[in-house]
Design a protein that fits this description.
single chain; Alpha-Beta Plaits; SH3 type barrels; four-stranded antiparallel beta sheet
């Protein structure tokens, strides 16, 4: 039995889902042997297409807007699984972090809760006491300043 291969399709950033849906429609219309279309959340500007050959995918990409091309190198199954299931590192309550983006950029904070996407923190340097919710991508591990 022949194993299917995975290919990376380059898209415009933030158009991954639209491209995947349009590509799925083209696959149904032309009955092309494409087995899956994946949109990994941690890989901006790319979707993963499972097919027998890149020759099956290339004609479809001409019909779909916001595609930027096909990477000729196929991806191993192990690489695909790593992209789909990245390790999640949760912050621990009480952990000291740096705010890296947003209006509180450059401030130190302490973790109150972490639900995986949003993090509730306390800002000891801020003049208004209380907790705020920040995207976890806007936080980084606290590093003491170099003296």
């Amino acid at each position: 039995m022949k194993r299917h291969r995975f290919f990376l399709v380059k898209t415009r950033d933030y158009y991954e889902t639209k491209v995947a849906l349009a590509l799925a429609q083209e696959v149904r219309t032309y009955k092309v042997p494409v087995y899956s279309i994946l949109v990994p959340g941690n890989l901006k500007g790319f979707i993963i297409v499972e097919a027998n050959s890149h020759h099956d995918i290339t004609p479809l990409l001409r019909e779909v807007k916001h595609t930027r091309g096909l990477m000729r190198r196929n991806i191993s199954h192990e690489e695909v699984f790593k992209m789909l299931d990245p390790p999640r590192r949760l912050f621990i309550a009480g952990q000291r972090v740096d705010v890296r983006n947003g209006p509180f950029k450059g401030m130190e904070a302490y973790i109150v809760t972490d639900d995986g996407k949003k993090v509730t923190v306390q800002l000891p340097e801020w003049e208004h006491p209380g907790e705020i919710t920040i995207n976890r991508g806007d936080l980084g591990i606290w590093r003491p300043p170099n003296k």
